Amino acid sequence: MANQTEIKYLTPITVETQRKKYCRFKKSGIKYIDYKDADFLLKFVNEQGKLLPRRITGTSNKYQKKVSQAVKRARHLSLMPYVADLLK
Questions:
Q1: Residues 72, 82: Cα–Cα separation, whole Å
Q2: Are 64 and 54 a contacting pair, CB within 8 Å?
Q3: What's residue 2's pLDDT?
């Protein structure tokens, strides 16, 4: 009989290590978020067109407010859609 210490796995057990979240704006030194750059703003929007929360993107509160304002302005000027199916 096999003892508990002799258990072998076919694939190695994956241990998920969480990376520390960081604000990409603070790291890059970006002070102004341009609402005219729709390709950059698409990184902060999911497939349905909703803004991604801070806990997922890792942006700080200060820059999350600036991102949301820039997305709203881009939508108002028709640079980005309000609602879309499979935006990306």
A1: 9
A2: yes
A3: 56
In the chain, what is the straight-line distance between the N-terminal and C-terminal CA atoms, in Å? 54
**pLDDT tens column, 62-82:** 999 999 999 999 999 999 998
Cα separation values, 64 from 10, 72, 86, Å: 44, 12, 23
Alpha-helix runs per DSSP H in 7-59: 24-28, 38-41, 54-57
Place of tokens 């499979």: 86
CA nearest neighbour of 67 among 82, 79, 78, 57: 57
Beta-ladder partners of 45: 51
Residue matched to tokens 């076919």: 10
